[in-house]
Design goal:
The chain has 482 residues and is α+β, with helices and mostly antiparallel strands. The protein has 10 helices and 23 strands. The chain has a 7-stranded mixed sheet with strand order 10-9-8-11-12-13-14. A 7-stranded mixed sheet has the order 19-18-17-20-21-23-22, with helices on both faces. β2 and β3 form a beta hairpin. The longest helix is centred in the N-terminal third of the chain and has 18 residues. The relative contact order is 0.10. About 4% of the residues have low confidence.
């Protein structure tokens, strides 16, 4: 689906560059109201990249979660700096016309979503403007063309994967949910309106089953206990589901019997896995995953192909929106069939394998060895013979290519491309580059380097709403060699 990227709302408000107000305030006189704990009345005019509403008070910026441009609110300052402050919403004096009722009863407490209270069209405008500001401010691009935003089938029930921290309630009951924003206070959930709704029975009932076993829940403050997370993954097109427990070790007596019981109770559940993560870290998955019962993977249909997805496999959480972006890339590239396509940061071949049908050869590069093996398996089960996948750092492997690619697809992690990768592309000069990113700031930074000296021309920016109800946005930049 395609939604307009017009950045003007019905009240003609703008999402301005926030730093201009902060940095241009040279000398700010002290004021008794500008201190922690003070209450202020504000008009919310913008949305920040982090998702907070933005108000202004005497040339200072105030960031307020759970607010909407057009709101007039009373807030309490919680963190005060000379030129900006964070605040907590106390009262809505006059609601914005773009404020809606959240679909979730704990939306204002749970950290899983930020924008359930904001009308969808305003979310899209804010995301497009986030991209525009990054490319103008960081990339130095002027008059950036931003195509209408691509969306999935729904702004709710879209997530194909959920990973819930586990905890213990005051009554000793096992809980699973998401952390309250800016805290480690767990908000217990039995259902979630942004997850695929077929996962809700598992979320609610597995907690009760865990209660029947003497498996201690991990306490991150003391680094004691075993069970850390419950992970659920579903194939949107197949309905096949995986359940994974993340634990500090394998000593969970009775797990195999419980896993078999889950397979018998839930027909869509095809596998139960155990992942071991003994390290005191915020990283969820450890290096070791074993299949306890059923299959170690589920099958999903994407881009007309069958993919195997394991518990720890990276795959876009919004299947429909990712496929909309894939189809747009295919349409815009207008491939002729003779091209060599390089997929840097290829993962399991999510984009490169569907594209292999339109080119002579695909070469995929990926640092994670498990992903490379999975990409090769996915190529094999789809009878794709013109794709080769190699393990290694992109910035090194790209210099070892036997032939210069005609088209390069970049899909790096949030930190963006290594400078050596950018330099290699400037040396090899492929005819077309498509750069997919979930962080406009690093995308704009890298594209500035590629376009310096008029070597490449930025043709188009294509946003895609992979993460409705949050401030995150995916975008694809299309570059052409001059």
């Amino acid at each position: 689906m395609v939604k307009s990227c017009n950045v003007e709302s019905r009240e003609n408000r703008s999402f301005v560059r926030l730093e201009s107000t902060v940095n241009n305030s040279k000398t700010l006189s002290s004021h008794p109201s500008w201190q922690q704990g003070q209450h202020l009345d504000l008009d919310i005019t913008d949305l920040s990249d982090s998702g907070d509403g933005v108000g202004r008070w005497q040339n200072r910026v105030v960031f307020v979660p759970n607010t909407v441009p057009g709101d007039r609110v009373t807030v309490r300052l919680t963190r005060v700096k000379p030129r900006y402050a964070n605040a907590k919403l106390q009262n809505i004096l006059s609601p914005s016309g773009d404020r809606i009722r959240p679909r979730c009863i704990v939306a204002d407490k749970c950290g899983g979503c930020q924008w359930q209270h904001i009308e969808d069209s305003l979310q899209h405008q804010a995301k497009c403007q986030q991209i525009r500001q990054a490319f103008e401010r960081i990339g130095g691009f002027e008059d950036v063309e931003i195509a209408p935003i691509l969306t999935g089938d729904s702004a709710l029930h879209y997530r194909n994967k959920a990973t819930y921290p586990l905890g213990v309630g005051q009554q000793g009951n096992i809980q699973a949910g998401y952390y309250r924003p800016r805290s480690h206070d767990l908000i217990n959930l039995n259902q979630c309106p942004v997850q695929d709704e077929r996962l809700n029975p598992l979320l609610q009932n597995v907690k009760l089953d865990l209660q029947q076993h003497p498996w201690p829940i991990y306490d991150e403050s003391r680094h004691q206990g075993k069970l850390r997370h419950l992970a659920l993954r579903i194939g949107r097109r197949t309905g096949e589901t995986l359940l994974t427990l993340i634990s500090t070790d394998e000593d969970l007596p009775g797990l195999r019997g419980q896993a078999q019981a889950w397979l018998q109770t839930y027909p869509q559940l095809v596998g139960v896995a155990l992942n071991i993560n003994p390290h005191p870290t915020n990283v969820i998955f450890g290096d070791q995953t074993t299949c306890v019962a059923g299959k170690p993977y589920l099958q999903e249909i994407f881009g007309g192909l069958t993919f195997q997805l394991r518990p720890e496999t990276f795959f876009q959480v919004n299947t429909e929106a990712a496929e909309a972006l894939l189809n747009q890339i295919i349409a815009d590239l207008a491939l002729q069939g003779h091209e060599i396509l390089l997929d840097a940061y290829c993962g399991i071949g999510t984009f490169s394998l569907p594209l292999a049908r339109y080119v002579r050869q695909v070469v995929g590069l990926e640092r994670q060895g498990a992903s490379v093996q999975q990409a090769r398996i996915n190529a094999q089960i789809n009878n794709i013979t013109n794709a080769r996948f190699y393990e290694g750092a992109v910035e090194k492997e790209i210099m070892q290519l036997e032939a210069i690619p005609d088209v390069v697809l970049l899909d790096p992690p949030r930190k963006g491309c290594d400078r050596a990768t950018v330099n290699a592309l400037l040396e090899q000069q492929p005819q077309k580059i498509i750069y997919i990113s979930c962080k406009p700031a690093t995308q704009a930074r890298d594209l500035k380097l590629l376009c310096e000296g008029d070597r490449y021309e930025l043709i188009k920016l294509q946003p895609a709403d992979f993460f409705p109800q949050t401030s995150h946005v995916e975008s694809a930049a299309f570059l052409r060699l001059r």
